[in-house]
Design brief:
Layout: E1 3-9, H1 20-44, E2 48-53, H2 62-70, E3 88-92, H3 103-109, E4 112-120, H4 122-135, E5 139-143, E6 147-148, H5 152-166, E7 169-171
Parallel strand pairs: 1-2, 1-4, 2-3, 4-5, 4-6, 5-7
Helix pairs in contact: 4-5
């Protein structure tokens, strides 16, 4: 039996994109739940992995992405979830956290067989990442209050799809056993 990892998806964000205005209110609601999960994971020694879009900046690294996000107009959404010295970081270029990233290899190296996905966007990156985890035989848990959406109706449908089609566990954030 493996162990769990908490994965924060696209939380290092400048919110300077087309859908930001629709996304930000949902991020504000999800943020306290994400912060509590993050604190619990760190306290319990559960691996924390940030998987983040590189915003098309191919010469950047995670420190530069964090710096840009903290200097952005919505830095209060980034600061509470900033990586610590033990956090792992994977840069992605597409919607899935697995697509052409070393994440599968990393999970195998740290003996993880269950991922807890939180962050943004439920109906996009969370959904596609859950599917890719499922086809890799990695168990998925989604803390429903710790994922942010652009369109509520699509997010609700995505959560139902993940539960039904991918056997993801959709559960309240506070009930998750790390």
């Amino acid at each position: 039996m493996g162990r769990n990892a908490l994965i924060l998806i696209d939380m290092i964000n400048t919110y300077e994109h087309a859908d930001a205005e629709l996304l930000i209110p949902s991020v504000r609601q999800a943020l306290p739940h994400i912060v509590r999960l993050l604190e619990r994971a760190r306290t319990q020694g559960v691996p924390v992995i940030y998987v983040n879009d590189n915003f098309g900046k191919w010469r950047s690294h995670h420190g530069e992405l964090l710096h840009a996000a903290l200097a952005g107009p919505e830095s209060e959404l980034v600061s509470p979830v900033r990586p610590d010295k033990n956090s792992l970081f994977v840069v992605k270029a597409r919607h899935s956290i697995f697509f052409e990233t070393p994440l599968s290899y990393l999970l195998s190296q740290i003996n993880v067989d269950r991922v807890i996905l939180c962050g943004q966007v439920t109906e996009q990156c969370i959904l596609y990442s859950a599917l890719d985890a499922h086809i890799r035989h990695v168990h998925v848990t989604i803390p429903k209050e710790a994922v942010a959406h652009i369109h509520r109706d699509l997010a609700e449908a995505a959560l139902r799809m993940m539960e039904r089609n991918m056997q993801a566990t959709i559960t309240p954030a506070d009930s998750i056993k790390l």
